[in-house]
Specification:
alpha+beta, 5 helices, Structural Genomics Hypothetical 15.5 Kd Protein In mrcA-pckA Intergenic Region, Chain A, 129 residues, 5-stranded antiparallel β-sheet
């Protein structure tokens, strides 16, 4: 991977490293305040360089990683994974949350086809808890 020596815009870096499917989604996340670089809120034009610490919230899941390389393009996922090193404790926290969400879905009442009146009420009550 030939990495440019100069820093890259954070929205492009997130897109190149495959955190978002499009650059416009990456820009929207940065504008919404879901991205922090070295603890400070980032703007779409903020530059990221090797050694920076990036915190990201995507779909209510937290990501925390250190920038290792600046990619030259949006390449394969295997290539993108070499550009950052993720914090192990955040990975464990995210996996535990995914497991809890799956477990919660297994406990939800189910019916064949559309839920009836009583099942709908149970679903609504579960969402409020």
């Amino acid at each position: 991977m030939s990495a440019p020596a100069e820093p890259l815009r954070i929205d492009r870096w997130l897109f190149f490293c495959r955190f978002f499917k499009s650059r416009s989604r990456a820009t929207a996340a940065v504008v919404a305040g879901h991205v922090r670089i070295n603890g400070e809120r980032a703007a779409p034009g903020s530059r990221v360089k090797c050694g920076d610490h990036v915190d990201l919230v995507r779909e209510r899941f937290r990501f925390s990683f250190e920038v290792i390389a600046i990619p030259a393009r949006r390449g394969p996922a295997a290539e993108a994974q070499h550009c950052f090193e993720e914090d192990v404790s955040v990975v464990r926290e995210r996996e535990a949350r995914v497991l809890a969400l799956r477990q919660d879905r297994l406990l939800m009442p189910t019916t064949e086809g559309r839920p009836d009146k009583h099942t709908r009420r149970k679903l609504i009550a579960r969402r409020r808890d």
